[in-house]
């Protein structure tokens, strides 16, 4: 079997990679239970790629119901070394309007009650370094591929990970902004921390689906708006992936 060139975790609006060829669906059992879905193992540009739908088939799992540990463990056990996470987010900063693609370089965790570590429970205890939460080389690879593919991508930004599944209040978004967050999403953590614990190189493409609460002119954030913006923005991702695997 060839080495895995990349593993991709798809978020809201990204439930498969249509370009993957020769696919096999792998049902993986992990010490933490079952992943969100079967891992799709296939080929893109002649390179072996894994894909996992974070919310499962038919988007059945809320952000707090996702078994992040099992997802990352499954990808690692199949041989992944690098994980590209695709996350739908709301935009907080002025340069993060709907349909923007961004590669964040920092994250703040506001989630609670999620299984957020692979350590403990009588096993080993380690405190992994998280100063730079995203892998620098993988971020650079994403940004270089986007540039080569002619796809605009914002380099950097701080992702605020909230609990969901409800959207935030305008006051919560103002607080996130004061804290330095440029983007808000519900699935960036504990995924990034677990990837670091498991020794996986991890980076994120954040796809801005809407202005966060209180930031745009819209009276309300609607699902139609979110899905339409996601569809338009994610249409650019196959070209970026192809360039990453060139
Ligand atoms: N907030 C949190 N998560 C999100 C949003 C949002 O506004 N949009 C898409 N994911």
TrEMBL record:
- CDD domains reported for this sequence: MTAP_SsMTAPII_like_MTIP
Q: Which UniProt keywords apply?
A: Glycosyltransferase, Purine salvage, Transferase
Site entry: Important for substrate specificity: 168, 223
EC number(s) stated in the UniProt entry for this protein: 2.4.2.1
Instruction: List the record's Gene Ontology CC terms alphabetically.
Output: cytosol
Q: Where is the Nucleoside phosphorylase domain?
A: 6-245
GO MF = S-methyl-5-thioadenosine phosphorylase activity
Q: Which residues bind phosphate?
A: 12, 54-55, 187
Tell me the Gene Ontology biological-process terms attached to this UniProt entry.
L-methionine salvage from methylthioadenosine; purine ribonucleoside salvage
Q: Which residues bind substrate?
A: 186, 210-212
Q: In which pathway does it act?
A: Purine metabolism; purine nucleoside salvage
The answer to whether UniProt assigns keyword Metal-binding to this entry is no
Q: Which domain of life is it from?
A: Bacteria
Give the record's subunit note.
Answer: Homohexamer. Dimer of a homotrimer.
Q: Spell out the note in the miscellaneous section.
A: Although this enzyme belongs to the family of MTA phosphorylases based on sequence homology, it has been shown that conserved amino acid substitutions in the substrate binding pocket convert the substrate specificity of this enzyme from 6-aminopurines to 6-oxopurines.
Briefly state the protein's biological role.
Answer: Purine nucleoside phosphorylase which is highly specific for 6-oxopurine nucleosides. Cleaves guanosine or inosine to respective bases and sugar-1-phosphate molecules. Involved in purine salvage.
Name of the protein: Probable 6-oxopurine nucleoside phosphorylase
Tell me what organism the protein belongs to: Pseudofulvimonas gallinarii
């Amino acid at each position: 079997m060839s080495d895995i060139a990349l593993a991709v975790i798809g978020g809201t609006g990204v439930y498969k990679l249509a370009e993957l060829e020769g696919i096999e669906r792998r049902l993986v059992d992990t010490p933490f239970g079952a992943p969100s879905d079967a891992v799709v193992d296939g080929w893109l540009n002649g390179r072996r790629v894994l894909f996992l739908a974070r919310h499962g088939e038919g988007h059945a799992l809320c952000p707090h119901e996702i078994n992040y540990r099992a997802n990352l463990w499954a990808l690692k056990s199949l041989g992944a070394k690098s994980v590209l996470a695709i996350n739908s987010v709301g935009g907080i900063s002025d340069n993060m309007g709907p349909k923007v693609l961004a590669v964040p370089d920092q994250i703040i965790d506001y989630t609670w009650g999620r299984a957020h570590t692979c350590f403990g429970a009588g096993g080993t205890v380690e405190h992994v370094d998280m100063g730079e939460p995203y892998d620098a080389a993988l971020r650079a690879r994403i940004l270089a591929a986007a540039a080569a593919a002619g796809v605009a991508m914002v380099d950097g930004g701080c992702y605020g990970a909230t609990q969901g599944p409800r959207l935030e209040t305008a006051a919560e978004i103002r607080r996130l902004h004061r804290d330095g967050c440029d983007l808000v999403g519900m699935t960036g953590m504990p995924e990034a921390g677990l990837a670091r614990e498991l020794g996986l190189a991890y980076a994120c493409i954040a796809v801005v689906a809407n202005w966060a609460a209180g930031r745009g002119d819209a009276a309300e954030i609607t699902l139609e708006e979110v899905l339409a913006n996601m569809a338009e923005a994610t249409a650019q991702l196959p070209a970026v992936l192809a360039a990453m695997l060139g």
